[in-house]
Amino acid sequence: MTQERPIKIACRNVWKAYGRRPAFYFDSRGYKIDPDALADRLRAEGHLPAVVDASFEVATGEIFVIMGLSGSGKSTLVRCLSRLVEPSAGEILLDGRNLLKASPKELIELRRHDMGMVFQNFGLLPHLTVLENVAFPLKIQRKGQKEREERAREMIALVGLDGREKSFPNQLSGGQQQRVGIARSLAVGPALWFLDEPFSALDPLIRRQMQDEFLRLQKLLKKTIIFITHDIAEAFRLADRLAIMRAGKIVQIGRPVDIVLSPADDYVGQFTEDMPLLRVIKAGDLATAINGTTVDHDIEAGASIEELIPRIAGGAKAFGVVQADAPRRMIAAADVLEVLERDSRRQRS
């Protein structure tokens, strides 16, 4: 994916260390840093390496999920990317520009215009209505009242809260409050969208609904997204690619199908062992050239293999796989059944 579309943001050898004098450890002139050795030294000398030598790239329009347990460094990393937390070392390039060299004034403008942020704590202003909350970032930008209210109403409609414009936050459910937070973050039209565990405080049913809503919005808006979660099922459901973190370090990056089929180590394997292949593997992962094959139905490349089982039971032999800006391909029923058999063997072992 990153080879086909331009890189929106690149994270290169980023560190965040807490302690008495973390800067001392990153004067690397004349020698190459050994990440594991340096992390061990930092811990031994009373420092906390919260992010260890993190490197990745996110393509324009990609959903990149950073996943890990509590304390793995994922939230610190996303705050480094927006410079809400200052990295100790490394580079963060937004459209090729190094954010670590941006002045405080430039950062304020970037956050106001180019970045959207949604956090687990909804952060709504309790004394403002839904309309006023969503319009608030535009007020900060000194937009006129008519312009900001029109934009706010558009975003409120986008997240399905028509008719609640005059409601206050305490009159909304948790899911509705998070929809307001999403609408507010989208009001400025950010090119880059950070979401840090936005649904983790919600009940399971509402969380699933918000994931559906998130995917619907992304299909419409095609934002570049960095999404933080500790929930492997959520990560696999939402991600184009994901990074798994442990003790501040990224241990594997890949598509969900790559990670579940080829975990980098036992730690990653334990995360993924209970994930059904039928839900992780998408039609696009198995699709091949049509080459004259007759297909029974067309499906989207992002459809899970699980969705095809009822149609195969009904007699379908092959499916056309469609994807925006890509040639139509196909997947045979036999390939789907092979995954089903592999999943059964995996669960029995």
From TrEMBL:
Which reactions fall under this protein's catalytic activity? a quaternary ammonium(out) + ATP + H2O = a quaternary ammonium(in) + ADP + phosphate + H(+)
Could you tell me what this protein is called?
A: Quaternary amine transport ATP-binding protein
How is the subunit organization of this protein annotated in UniProt? The complex is probably composed of two ATP-binding proteins (TmoW), two transmembrane proteins (TmoV) and a solute-binding protein (TmoX).
Q: How does it sit in the membrane?
A: Peripheral membrane protein
State the family it belongs to: Belongs to the ABC transporter superfamily.
Stretch forming the signal peptide? none
Keyword list, A-Z? ATP-binding, Cell inner membrane, Cell membrane, Membrane, Nucleotide-binding, Transport
Q: Which GO terms describe its cellular component?
A: plasma membrane
EC number(s) per entry: 7.6.2.9
